[in-house]
Write a structure and sequence with these properties.
Layout (H helix, E strand, L loop, with lengths): L2 H6 L2 H6 L7 E3 L3 E4 L6 E4 L4 H8 L7 E6 L9 E13 L14 E3 L5 H11 L14 E6 L2 E11 L3 E9 L8 H15 L3 E7 L3 H9 L3 E13 L4
Length: 233
């Protein structure tokens, strides 16, 4: 197992204990993003003590998410709200330098967050919060002064970068905008020597086909666990 494999089995922990440390709070065994950035949390190990330390970082009734390669058996501090599989894909082959549609893509900034939140609410690409843009570089495509497609970098690890928030407004689907954005972000990650990766729900067959067409390969099935902090201490 190389360094990127080790990180990708537990990506949130390796982001928050590495490049994203300033975006969250941590103990020796647990870490969590600031609420306005993300509700993802990570554990060094799936132990009762790690879950207890994670509980110390959130308030009762708060909901958080874990993305792990292992099954979660939380301590009594937690109630399991939902569990589902996510498919993790990586892109190891070089992205071609000429990417169709790249001329339409522009970098997004904090000035665009309102439109980004609106697009995410309409398309449901996954969790996206007011300060998620702080995680990394986000790019989008505009049409008639409206943001119609976007994608960006969410988890940044020492050896890999996650592509996330990939979405296109219903009025602009079928134009290849998602593929263009994903390719540009993958090329950007490869350009700094990092492995591009992403997660997709198992049932999202159309997205899986797109990512495979773009050169991504399935690495493994991950577990997304949604937990609610109980009042127990």
């Amino acid at each position: 197992m190389d360094s990127s494999d080790f990180e990708l089995d537990n990506p949130v922990w390796h982001a928050l204990s590495g490049p994203h440390a300033s975006l969250g709070t941590a103990t020796p065994l647990a870490a969590i993003y600031n609420p306005a950035v993300s509700r993802f949390a990570g554990l060094l190990e799936p132990s009762a003590e790690a879950f207890a330390q994670l509980a110390s970082l959130v308030e009762p009734e708060e909901i958080i998410a874990l993305d792990t390669a292992w099954h979660v058996s939380p301590s009594p501090h937690w109630q399991v709200v939902n569990v589902e599989n996510l498919e993790q894909f990586v892109c190891e082959q070089p992205i071609a330098s000429a990417i169709a549609g790249a001329d339409r893509v522009v970098a997004l900034s904090t000035a665009d967050v309102e439109q980004m939140l609106d697009l995410a609410a309409r398309t449901q690409p996954g969790p996206f919060s007011a300060e998620t843009i702080r995680c990394g570089y986000y790019a989008g495509v505009w049409g008639n002064a409206e943001l119609v497609a976007m994608a960006g970098e969410r988890l940044t690890l020492n050896h890999a970068v996650e592509i996330s928030g990939v979405c296109t407004a219903a009025s602009h689907r079928g134009q290849g905008l998602a593929g263009t954005l994903v390719q540009l972000l993958a090329a950007r990650a490869q350009g700094v020597g990092k492995l591009p990766f992403l997660h997709v729900r198992t049932a999202n067959v159309s997205a899986i086909r797109l990512y495979e067409m773009l050169g991504f390969r399935h690495r493994r099935t991950m577990q997304l666990t949604i937990l609610k902090r109980t009042s127990r201490v």
